[in-house]
Amino acid sequence: MSITFHKEEIEFALPAEEKITAWLLDIVKKENKTITQLTYIFCSDEYLLGINKEYLNHDYYTDIITFPYKQGHEIESDIFISVDRVRENAVEFDTTFESELLRVIAHGLLHMAGYSDKTEGDQDKMTEMENQSLVMWNSANNLS
């Protein structure tokens, strides 16, 4: 099992890597999954736009792109997150940067655990699961 965090073309401090790792393990345990290899790559809008164009033929900004290598019971993936987009979304959704970052981190893992966000019903379920994940984070870290 390996969870790693990298930065590409961005400078920011990831809060509490060890706590985030433990939290991600709690999420997959709740989903009855295991992590083989999970790599989060935090990057700029422009970096992720390049990935979006090159690999998905999409010419727009996004907050996250997941590349699943193994799904099912075992999860193996690279997850790219635009820190720029997370900052903008935090303002738009009237939340803190850390809360929005944690939501997006959970979102990527939940995709790998089998949750989709293609339809409105899927989006509602994904949001519910993200919210449950944030409650787990807050509980584990004695936050309200």
Can you describe this structure in just a few lines?
By secondary structure, the chain is an alpha/beta fold.
Summed over residues and divided by their number, the pLDDT gives a mean of 95
CATH class: Alpha Beta
- How much helicity do the residues have? 40-55%
Shape: globular
Strand order of the largest sheet: 1-2-4-3
State which percent range the strand residues make up: 15-25%
Q: Which consecutive residue ranges, at least 5 long each, have pLDDT under 50? A: none
Largest sheet: 4 strands, mixed
- The total of beta strands comes to 4
Number of helices: 5
| Rg over alpha carbons | 14 Å
**CATH 2nd-level architecture:** 3-Layer(aba) Sandwich
Can you walk through the features of this model?
By secondary structure, the protein is of the alpha/beta class. It has a single domain, classed as Collagenase (Catalytic Domain) (3-Layer(aba) Sandwich). Helix content is 51%, strand content 22%. The chain has 5 helices and 4 strands. The chain has helices at residues 17-30, 45-56, 83-92, 97-112, 120-140, and strands spanning 3-8, 34-43, 64-70, 74-82. The protein has a 4-stranded mixed sheet with strand order 1-2-4-3, with helices on both faces.
List keywords for this structure.
single chain, 144 residues, alpha/beta, Collagenase (Catalytic Domain), four-stranded mixed β-sheet, 4 strands, globular
